DNA sequence: ATCCGCTCATGACATTTGTCATCGGGAGTC
DNA sequence: GACTCCCGATGACAAATGTCATGAGCGGAT
């Protein structure tokens, strides 16, 4: 059986380079392309048609999940996996919805990552147990679409008037949504609500 | 001349391992110790007495700058440098005050990092030009000690009453400080102020 | 000796937010 | 058809916040 062809996308050159070197030590893995941004990752993937795309979650342009979403239709045979520093529950959820087959934190060893790449390439899934537990504990977002949208706008510290304008809603409506969102999250005010929603990955 | 003895501290195993492997390829560099947390980095440094300590900025326990501060007195001959993903101006400032001799983003290549380690070990300093420019552009904090302290407490979304209690101030005073802080930062309200201060590394 | 800035406080006032009740329209379900 | 849920809105009221003037004590600088 020929080597697994891997695409590596991470904006941190230090990590990407080092990782490429380490994965190259594995006989059955071959890094066929590298990218530093989301759009670049997409382009490289379409050009080199790798078996597995290892994507950093946070990249300039498009994030890892967005790239995975595009690849799902653009290159359906390519398995995607996400590597990330910050393991927020919401990210995992978004990733799984995008058809990502592997989700690991950067705290794993290169050895372990290599194993997981093989696992994913074989058609299986792998999710870091700790992140999975967090995600399950966090549960689903109780927020409605509008509540989340308004909360998102409030995250920048904008006053109600500005949120209302941007969302094309009346001020009263905005306040109602913020109020109900905060109450659903058990927060004392909108800002604590933003913080909580962020932690759980709901915004 | 014998090889430069390097301590590597980063909580992300993937990066630390990969980096150690790459630096080992350089004839004149030798990784003598690795650590995944701040306290561990400190202990390993005192035990192995490296020439250069390469510290990740964000680590559990103690962050890179805190470790550098301790090393300055505990192991004065050890040169320290910081490697980071997020290059906030304030971090650089804090680092330089802590006697750090090198400050680089993780977007550099391993090759480049090796060069910088040599530079630092030779007694010179190195600061990433782009981060330096940002830091200069951001300038010094216009906030007084108390303003910064109160803003810090406000960052968690706490209401004035709670901030007042925690800072042992009257509510009115807290509001005055928040108001003046926001006005100095050109922010419309305390939350936008928190955001701005965060971006510039002033809290 | 004087001035200035930081700290901490109070009071008053306008504005913004949070909360609640209530309404109508639409989409989906049983 | 009745029911429920989400969307969007209004009005009213209480509470929190932002703003300003003003004052006192303190310490450093000229």
From TrEMBL, chains A, B:
Sites of 4-aspartylphosphate modification: 56
Domain Response regulatory: 5-121
Record keywords: DNA-binding, Phosphoprotein
Residue intervals of the HTH luxR-type domain: 136-201
Protein name per its UniProtKB record: Response regulator
Organism of this sequence: Streptomyces cremeus
Phylogenetic lineage: Bacteria, Bacillati, Actinomycetota, Actinomycetes, Kitasatosporales
């Amino acid at each position: 059986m020929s080597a697994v062809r891997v695409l590596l996308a991470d904006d941190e050159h230090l990590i990407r380079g080092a990782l490429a070197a380490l994965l190259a030590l594995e006989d059955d893995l071959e890094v066929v392309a590298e990218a530093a941004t989301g759009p670049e990752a997409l382009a490289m993937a379409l050009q080199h048609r790798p078996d597995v795309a290892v994507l950093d979650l946070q990249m300039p342009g498009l994030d890892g999940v967005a790239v995975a979403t595009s690849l799902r239709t653009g290159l359906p045979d390519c398995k995607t996996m996400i590597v990330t520093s910050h393991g927020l529950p919401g990210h995992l959820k978004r990733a799984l919805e995008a058809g990502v087959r592997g989700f690991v934190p950067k705290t794993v060893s290169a050895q372990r990552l290599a194993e997981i790449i093989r696992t994913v390439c074989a058609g299986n899934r792998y999710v870091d147990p700790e992140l999975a537990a967090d995600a399950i504990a966090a549960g689903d977002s109780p927020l409605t679409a509008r509540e989340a949208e308004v909360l998102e706008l409030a995250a920048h510290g904008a006053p109600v008037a500005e949120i209302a304008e941007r969302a094309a809603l009346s001020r009263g409506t905005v306040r109602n949504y913020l109020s109900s969102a905060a109450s659903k999250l058990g927060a004392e005010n909108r800002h604590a609500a933003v913080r909580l929603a962020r932690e759980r990955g709901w915004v």
